[in-house]
Amino acid sequence: MTDLLWILIALPLTGAFINIVFGKRIGEPLAGWLGFVLVGSAWAIAVVPTLGLLTGSGTPETIYLFSWIPVVGADAAILWDPLSALLTMIVTGVGALIHLYSIGYMHGDERFARFFGYLNLFIASMLILVLASNYAVMFIGWELVGLSSYLLISFWFKKPSAAAAGKKAFIVNRIGDWGFLVALMIIFASFGTFDFGVIFTTAPVVLTTGAATAITLLLFLGATGKSAQIPLYIWLPDAMEGPTPVSALIHAATMVTAGVFMMARSAVLFELAPISGVTIAVIGGATALLAAVIAVTQMDIKKVLAYSTISQLGYMVMGVGVGAYSAGVFHLSTHAFFKALLFLGAGSVIHGMADEQDMRKMGGLRKAMPVTFVTMTVGWLAISGIFPFSGFWSKDEILAATFQRGGPWLILWAVGILAALLTAFYMTRLYVLTFLGKPRWAEGTEPHESPWTMTLPLAVLAVAAVIFGVFNTPARLAFEHFLEPSFALISHAEPLDLPLAAVLALFALVVAIGGIAWSWFRYNRDELPVEEGGFWQRGLNGFAVDDLYGRVIVEPGKKVCEWFADSVDPKGIDGVSHGIAQGVRTAGDGLKTLQSGQVRSYAGGIAIGAVVLILAVLALGGGF
Amino acid sequence: MGNASYLAVAFEGILLIGALVVLLVAVVAGRSRAVWAPIAGASFLLAALAGVLQWIEVENGGGGMFFSAQNLQVIKSPMVVLDGFSAMASIVLGLVGFTAMLGSWDLVAKVGKRSAEFVALSLLAFAGLHMMAATPNLVVIFIGLETASISFYVLAGFIRADVKSDESALKYFLLGSLASALFLYGIALTFAATGSLTIYGVNSIRDFFSETVVSDPGILLVGMALMLVGLMFKISAAPFHQWAPDVYQGAPSGAVGLMAAGVKIAGFAALGRIFVGGFISQIDTWGPIVAVIAALSMVIGTTMALVQTDMKRLVAYSGVAHSGYLLLTLLAGVEGMSAMWFYLATYPFMIVGTFAIISTVSGPTSTSSPIEAMRGLSRRSPEMGWLLAIFMFGMSGMPFFAGFVGKILAFIAAGDAGYIWLVVVATLTTVIGFAFYLRVVATVFSGEDDDTTMIDPTLSSRFAVVIGATVTVVFGIVPWILIDVVRDALPL
Amino acid sequence: MTLTISWFLILAAALFSIGVAGVLIRRNALVMFMSIELMLNSVNLTFVAVSRELGLIEGQVAALFVMVVAAAEVTIGLAIIVAVFRRKASANVDELAELRG
Fold first, then answer.
1. ipTM of this predicted complex?
2. pTM of this prediction exceeds 0.90
3. Does C31 touch chain A (CB under 8 A)?
4. If we measure between CA atoms, which residue out of A465, A94, A468 comes closest to residue A249?
5. Which domains does chain C have, with CATH numbers?
6. Among B163, B229, B367, B449, which would you mutate to test the A interface (most chain A Cβ atoms within 10 Å of its Cβ)?
7. What SS3 class is residue B198?
8. Would you state the torsion angle of the CA atoms of residues A606, A607, A613, A617, taken in this order, to the nearest 10 degrees?
9. Domain encompassing residue B331
10. What are the start-end ranges of the H helices in A436-527?
11. Total domain count for chain A?
């Protein structure tokens, strides 16, 4: 059965090919159904081997497909273990639902088929990433995912902001990718292979703590790009310019979790580098808090969810940093469901409100959009961390793991609790402003419920958001047991005592309810509170981090380059990469003067080179 | 005649006969191009086929040294060697020559009554190039080098459209002769120090190193250094690279692919033969120097390519950087040879394909080819646009293209030899290099909708480009097919 | 005083250096080319001297081959230089620097 797992990747890839090449001829809505059916069948095919792993009748294994670059241990092979199985289920499952949803959402778009082609390409790339059995193939998936993300963010490329957002995501991610690439080089230099099996079993012997720290920090740099952490998170809010299903699939449920997945996959390496662990946990916690604060001030419904995603990713990264890999992955899974649900719900609202995204112009939608309202309620409670919804269990587990480390880690725990309070606050704000209260609609807006292709995925995701949490309660760690084979090579912390765990969970629950209550009474009234002071204004601009980057990095770079270069193409890639390229260009312009065109100066170059070379050979060979 | 083997010299023989037939037909049957197209094509393909036969012979244990002095028992001064290395050179040079000839055919069509000379010179040049890979004798390597170089001097100035062609030919000739003289003096000094001109056989350079304790190696070292200089010039490694961009730009676009690809293959084959075959015991002396040259080539080539506005200059500088990557493979000694042949079996096809496209877009006799001329190529000639993108991706080292695998193998070779710093430099230049390759791709795919002067490539250049792209893509996706083969492409 | 091989090798090296210097210093393409020929001939001297010293025939054969190659180079080289001269009415290489950068 597992021999046929390559079909998982082949199905969406076929869809991508057909939809991109023949899309115009297939037309709407057939192209969408084709994409949905292919991804859905991939999910169905993956169910059986996943159940095998779940029941224990199947074992983790590496399925060899064909040799790609055997010398470097980079074969095309599938690593099928609980971790990859879980991610596969999420990617194909949520992916299929979002394909279905998009059939309704993208109705009438002139490039309908092309959209599904890109979505299918994304699913295939993501599967390559999660199923890779070595870093080389994983990196290829990583890059392909980045490419399809770029294509999808700037899908409405005629809108300048969308094109700019796509470009920004692309450039910011290149910085992260650079870290990943250098990490891979060090890995290869140390191990002589990219193969996970060899690397993870021999890592404790081969790597010194210094090497492990270097590798893991560089890998983490890669993760901060994809998983939108400080300092590289700035691309994700802008990426909301893409169609909403894209935000749900890529920028909430799947691609942004790739960084967390990659770190969980490399858990063995991270275990060897305690300093990296601290760094990662601190950055994760800081991101969770900062993004939550910004989310409180946002007015655009999708921007709230975008910052909320960054904040939740911060939790996952924190989990990885404290060594609670399965807790991080657990939060990744629950978050995939409820955040996809929230995004799709928001998309349904936007769709029904004729593309209105400002929450101040919504309100009272509960009667106009009943299904959306009910499912969004589930999502709201889940992300706020209300018992017994899934978010409660997964968030609690990360916080508990942080608490357990004791000492200065308690500060981090407090940060997490604070972020949880804010999460409950801003989500309630979003919920109340959108669905409750009196309508504040713009003239002539007539909200309507979305078609069934859009509401059905909402319902399915809502069910998942409710029940998925109970897989892993402090009392019954089924999820952790399931993932155990993937983390077999690292030591496990003892789970907390049940009474202490219960007290902590109760505390978190009280905090969440407090946040909800605070927000509820603040916003659920006829007169909305005035939010125009300095804090709100600055928060709305994301505390001007973009400006800061612009002023500190991009502008000086540009200035320096403008000063140096006289005839450069201003249409090139802007921003940081532009600066680097310019520096090199300046050097090139300098070297150009050596290339004078004078044949005698070239002959002189050869003669000088020859003399230096002769002297060097004599010195090295002992000729003196 | 000692131990003659016609198979061992089949490549040279076939191309020589081809060249003579072309010249004869030109005299007897007049000026019809149509006649020598099949002759040239058949010569190259037959030569490649001879390479395959050589390869099979070697695999069956039939390799060895031939054309040696009198005694059959004692192999003294062999002139030709048949091993995996030379057989691979036959196959690669034959196929690259065939593809490059297709790419040059637009030019051949343009030059009218002189076309026979062009074809004959190309065939002779490739015979000379292969000689560099297939002989253990240093003087014969020199003769091969000169046969090719002199032919290429002529090709560089073949079209005297403007003063640039003259300048190109004169620069190539003066600097090339200077480098050849340095190379030859290196041979003479090596001869003086070791008393041998041959790499293998009795009383060879290898014997010298294994039997003699060199107390005063001065002359030997200078000889080695000068040979290195001469070959570094031919492969256009920095700081001996300055001729390449000027010559490539001034030479007719249609001829450059042939020259650039051929010289690169043979130059590295000769480097491998001499330094890995003969001077391997001195690797601690020449290794670090080659490493520094490689680093310089990668850095200078990449930096300069970024500021170019002319396609031919850009490819020339990228060629300088590629020489740097290729030099990495030499550092690993014999273990690096398979990586070198993987690179040499793929990268020249990208050069040939790129120049075929340049020749199509800017005209086969052009002496300038601004990158801007490529604007909107994806619409004006979709196939050429896409295939140029493939070549750019291939050269840049994008995964799923042959250039990527070639680079990885080269990096590994350098890493195995302990040059980690060099691998870091190579990776950085690769990343920076993406900038200029992608700039070309961006240019190809941009431009106004109303710019619709269509370009209709000729059948021959279409073929050349498609062959090149096929190699680039196929060995990028399934490289192990080639890796398994080149594993045996080792010098004796 | 007996003439040992060192004298010949030193003379050849001196000639070779003069040749290199000529290529670097002279502006006339023809003279530059003559300097290169001088370099090739100094190599021949080395070959022959070593050959005689070691009692090997290879060096003398090599010298013959080098002469043939040099002759071939002359044919092509002079043709190129004449072509340039016809266009520019000058063989000064410093005036030929259109290709650069």
1. 0.96
2. no
3. no
4. A94
5. 5-91 (1.10.287.3510)
6. B229
7. strand
8. 140
9. 10-486
10. 452-467, 478-483, 498-523
11. 1
